[in-house]
Design goal:
Blueprint: H1 2-27, E1 38-45, E2 56-59, E3 62-72, E4 79-86, E5 97-102, E6 109-114, E7 127-128, E8 130-132, H2 137-146, H3 154-165
Parallel strand pairs: 1-7, 2-6, 5-8
Antiparallel strand pairs: 1-4, 2-3, 3-4, 5-6
Length: 173
């Protein structure tokens, strides 16, 4: 009775540890050699915000790749982002656009691709020319707070409307 129970408990513990290890590896964003093949595309952005390597690349909310590398162009001082796109999506149109977005208000940054209608597909190593930089929420909030809650240029328009709509006190006979 003793050795069988000890063996069963040991086997159960080994199975539990193996399950935890598999879950831990599956939850990382790393490709451990048994993932899909990918091909590189490049995109140039003036601002990448909080975008990091291994961030997802999505089309219509579905992950189709990841950010492989981020470099600074030494001539133009733009950020050059290399995307590793799953080879299932190798026929992206040549006029595909890329933007940097955020999941929720303070969530992770990701690159969203919007395929166009060009019949010529992007080839591995091509650059996506239509890009939209990341939006800096802190900067937007600061502009809103220090402008009194009005968009720039509206202060004059509201002052002129007050003058023209004010009743005149001209004497009437």
């Amino acid at each position: 009775r003793g050795p069988r129970i000890e063996f069963a408990v040991g086997a159960f513990l080994l199975l539990a540890l193996a399950s935890v290890l598999v879950l831990a590896l599956a939850s990382t964003n790393r490709n451990w050699g048994f993932g899909h093949a990918s091909y590189p595309l490049k995109a140039r952005f003036t601002s990448i915000g909080a975008l990091r390597p291994n961030a997802p690349v999505k089309i219509a909310g579905v992950a189709v790749g990841k950010v492989a590398d981020i470099q600074v162009d030494p001539v133009k001082y733009d950020s050059v982002v290399t995307l590793a796109i799953d080879s299932k999506y190798k026929d992206l149109p040549g006029d595909t656009s890329a933007g940097i977005f955020t999941n929720g208000l303070l969530g992770e940054s990701y690159i969203g691709l919007s395929p166009g209608g060009d019949p010529e597909p992007l080839k591995p190593g091509d650059e996506i020319f239509l890009t939209q930089p990341a939006v800096d929420l802190i900067q937007l909030v600061g502009k809103y707070m220090f402008s009194g809650g009005k968009p720039a240029g509206d202060a004059e328009a509201s002052d002129n409307s007050k003058e023209s709509s004010a009743p005149t006190d001209a004497p009437t006979k």
